[in-house]
Each structure stands twice: as C-alpha cells, then as structure tokens.
Design goal:
Shape: globular
Radius of gyration: 13 Å
Strand content: over 45%
Length: 117
C-alpha cells in the first residue's frame, strides 16, 4: 500500500484535489474537508477497470466506507459528507497504475478559504 499525495487547485470558490498514478491497494493522503461537505468525484482509468471508495474520517485515523462513495471508472458521482472532517480515496481494484481520482467541491457560503489545508 502506497499513500499518494494529491495536487491541489484552490480557487476563489472551489477546491480540486487530484490523486494520480494510483494502483490497487493505494490510498490518497487525507485532506481536511470540513469546509466542503458536498463534492463531485470522478475516477479516470485507462483500462476502465478501477474501483475506488472515497473514505471518510473524523479523526484521520479510523476510516469508514460510506455506501454512496463507491465509484468505478469512468464514473462521475455526487458525494455528500456533511459530518466528515477528512476524506481520502482508496483504490481496491485496478488493472494498471493509470488510475486518477478527482474530487471537486464548491465553497460553503461564509467559509474562510484562507485556512491552510
């Protein structure tokens, strides 16, 4: 199992995390998601065989697999994490290291985007 670090694209009213080159058994680094309770997630896989779960945690140690966060390539899904502090992707099947996960969210009204991730 390898932990893959996401690249972050943070704009005025959105944030996007991309975990690239993931293979079966890999997890993405945990990202603080408390300002972003809803998101759109997409799995991109050159073979179309990847299955991914977006895991959630409130302490960054104990992880859960919500039933609405199981994704397959090339799927685009709306996710709802109203009580999750942290999220991360976990790739449980993949044919090759061509799997990438994109997690995109818009800002909550009145939240502070100057906070570090």
């Amino acid at each position: 199992m390898t932990t893959v670090t996401a690249t972050v694209d943070k704009g005025d009213s959105h944030i996007a995390y991309t975990w690239a080159s993931m293979s079966a058994g890999d997890v993405g680094n945990a990202v603080d998601f408390w300002l972003w309770p809803t998101a759109v997630a997409q799995v991109v896989d050159s073979s179309g065989a990847a299955s991914v779960v977006i895991q959630i945690s409130n302490d960054g140690v104990t992880w859960f697999n919500p039933s609405n966060s199981i994704l397959s390539a090339p799927q685009l899904s709306n996710l709802d994490f109203p009580k999750a502090r942290y999220v991360r992707p976990y790739v449980y099947t993949a044919d090759a290291q061509a799997t990438a996960i994109l997690l995109l969210s818009r800002q909550l009204i009145g939240s502070d985007l100057s906070k570090d991730e």
